[in-house]
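Technical appendix A lists one of the benchmark inputs used to test multi-chain prediction within the project. The record comprises two sequence entries:
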Amino acid sequence: MSLRVASGKSASGEDALIARYFRPLATDPGAFGLDDDAAALRPDGSDIVVTTDAIVEGVHFLPDDPPDTIARKALRVNLSDLAAKGAIPAGFVLTLALRHAEEAWLKPFAAALGEDAVQFACPLLGGDTVSTPGPLMVSVTAFGQVPPGRMVHRSGAKPGDRVMVTGTIGDAALGLAILRGGKVHAAASDGAARDMLIGRYRVPQPRVAMAKIVRDHASASMDVSDGLAGDLAKLCGVSGVSAVIDLPSVPLSEAARDLVRRGIVGRETLIAGGDDYEIMCTLTEDHVEAFVQSAREAGIAVSSIGRVIAGGAVPKFIDGNGAEIVLERLSYSHF
Amino acid sequence: MSLRVASGKSASGEDALIARYFRPLATDPGAFGLDDDAAALRPDGSDIVVTTDAIVEGVHFLPDDPPDTIARKALRVNLSDLAAKGAIPAGFVLTLALRHAEEAWLKPFAAALGEDAVQFACPLLGGDTVSTPGPLMVSVTAFGQVPPGRMVHRSGAKPGDRVMVTGTIGDAALGLAILRGGKVHAAASDGAARDMLIGRYRVPQPRVAMAKIVRDHASASMDVSDGLAGDLAKLCGVSGVSAVIDLPSVPLSEAARDLVRRGIVGRETLIAGGDDYEIMCTLTEDHVEAFVQSAREAGIAVSSIGRVIAGGAVPKFIDGNGAEIVLERLSYSHF
């Protein structure tokens, strides 16, 4: 790990720069002020839930995205995983592959990362900074705590369970489409709606407040990051079940609904878009009421979108008339 | 995390390829067969030591290095950190940034990673695979266990302590010099010596067997990865001390000694080279004998190279006559 000042002659200006901006984030005693080769976690009887997600320039964020939004996205995509697993954030380590260590980039990056670390009570524990001639890459490994054996899996969905999702779906995919230009860009003329959609792409809202609620109620859970349709297929695959989803019940923002109404984009495109970072989970029927009530108290909207059924088929999406909708693609794939 | 097969239509051939080769490595029950978004660690009262190190094509390994050596290096540089901290390996997560998911590369990469995971009892717990248009990058976050509060720090060195180092220093830097061509390449005509030096660059030998010995005896410890001189300066800086090192006592392999004798390379260059992945630690005098004895029983050579002294100066290196040697540079720096 080398997010630290090298003492002695080898301390280059860039090493000092990195230490100057990242050391203030290492508030946890187990980070040892970033002065050591490793961090230490003391879990006090909990299981440590570990998740790792990397974001790459040109793939997960755009070359001209502001450094503060890149920092927030890198951490938040991991916090989203922890929340879906029912885990309370405990800390993270960071690998930063940079072409140059520039103050103008590092300063806002570290400041935003620090704000998020405080907001989500997830301190920086350590990291590694490497130079790369290629695209910028930010890799985060985040740690959360759950009582022993209580991590919520993808594998627990049973026929009859309700399928629920937090927030709204498809906004981030629309935000990316706006940033890329094209027909969505041309159609999204309302400034506030545009900004909201772009914001949803650049800065996900991890549902950290749902962690305990998911743990208390869900039979299976995952975060929606590669498209709701594809991610549901994964959850069903691991659980050995299928599902029927009522497409009109998939929650959309007002901005997304407007674009659907005007025929700019179809609902089936939105459920195959990526970067939602909402939680999708399944619940036995007797948990639905308490789940909805607890989510409401936490200030997070949740929607019932369908039901788990027996079988090994890819989940079905039906329209308002009960007719099946054939999807061209289920999700975003890296390769 | 997505080192897994996506079920359903979105499962591309490449996703399946990744799952086919990596799933067999996920032998720990906490890896959930790579079928989930996260792994779980159950530490049983231990502290979890966390370290993260990334290796980048063209920076830490060469574009034509074989995939099996890249895999081993990525894991071993992290195991080296754990050993220096006194921690017993518990598992790791992997972020792989690839241009393409090719069977010809993934198969030997995963096979070698799996062999090392078994050899060092450090199973794969999860990971993330992302596509990149840039250089290949392998980022590993590794976990180790120590009894509560027993991680060995950089910060414990005291005046009067002995400075010890495992193995030999400078071989990897010579191996890299051979691979790059130039005068070391021309001079290293002995095939076996050449192969040994290149092997030391490509595949470090993490001193995992030293973990408990370091924990039982060292006052401060770190692994030597960026050059012995620079790394010692870091350890001294954090400990608030200085050191005097007897340069002829710094252990060299027979191949390195031969190149020094023939005037091809100087000892001062070898102690500023990188990639040694040996353990450097400090010991109070009353621990030296037991430390040396335990290391011998573990089959690992250790050498006494100098002593910690009071003060804040950069560590001094003296030649066989007690004269100070001025170093041009202390270590490799990324930026």
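The mean pLDDT of chain A is 91. The longest strand of chain A covers residues 88-98. Comparable benchmark entries are summarised in Table A2.
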